[in-house]
Amino acid sequence: MDKMTGIILMVLGSVLLISGVFVYSLSARDKKQITTVPEPASLVTMERKPNPPFIVVKNTSAVSQEKKEYIVEKNSNLPGSKTRLKNYVSPEKKGYEFEKYVIQKFNRKLFKVKEWAGDKYVKGIYAETTTNPDMLFEFTMNDKTRCFAVECKWRNRADRDGIQFSTDAQLERYRKYEREKNTTVFIVLGIAGKPSSPEHLYIIPLMNINTTFLRMDEIKQYEKNVEKTFLYDHEADILR
């Protein structure tokens, strides 16, 4: 009886030992699997750097040299944030404001606006008058009538002791207009200040311009008092 009991206890001990080893191996394997499972994407926290609040955009257009750098203020991470343009006025609006300033320099009793060209176009389609000087005036006094054209240019500053007032193609178009229409063209140039109120004003006959770059020392003789209205000598064909 004692011998049989001993055998039974030995068998039970062996079973328990084998069971223990088996359970331990399962536990170790499950633990290893758990530690190697990647964390779900929804639980992963990534550090995000906020967008810079200011983005500076530089305009490199050679046609519109007076365009300023402007700032886009943007922060989409903040609730209720907006994108705004600061200190930016389109070249078209600047040009129109200066044209309005110039046209008010003419006495309405003596000058009539015959043409006022616009800059409207779509997909390369535009009116023939778009490439003409900005304005065509008719001067009348004592039964004397004469027409002349005006091209308006405003620049926010002068560079390198002068100003680039047009492109070569534009200058050639103005000359072609003057030849074909037999009509004198004057360049009215405003510098600094605002388009609606320039600090300096010049009235330069196109026939006296040989290049698209105007030196300040050479055009000084054409400077006009910004407070005065424009005068026209129809006999000499001079606007001043």
Distance between the termini: 140 Å
Main beta-sheet strand count, sense and barrel state: 6 strands, mixed
Helix content: 25-40%
Which CATH architecture of the largest domain would you pick?
3-Layer(aba) Sandwich
CATH fold group of the largest domain: Trna Endonuclease, Chain: A, domain 1
Radius of gyration from CA coordinates: 41 Å
Low-confidence stretches: 39-84
Mean pLDDT: 77
Number of domains: 3
Annotation field: number of helices = 4
Describe this structure in words.
This protein is α+β, with helices and mostly antiparallel strands and 240 residues long. It folds into three domains: 1-39; 47-88, no CATH class; 91-239, Trna Endonuclease, Chain: A, domain 1 (3-Layer(aba) Sandwich), CATH 3.40.1350. It is built from four helices and 15 strands. A hairpin with an 8-residue loop joins strand 10 (185-191) and strand 11 (200-205). The longest helix has 35 residues, at 2-36.
Outline the fold blueprint:
Blueprint: H1 2-36, E1 54-57, E2 70-73, E3 84-86, H2 91-103, E4 111-116, E5 121-122, E6 125-126, E7 135-141, E8 144-155, E9 162-164, H3 168-181, E10 185-191, E11 200-205, E12 213-215, H4 216-219, E13 223-224, E14 232-233, E15 238-239
Parallel strand pairs: 8-10
Antiparallel strand pairs: 1-2, 2-3, 4-7, 5-6, 7-8, 9-12, 10-11, 11-13, 14-15
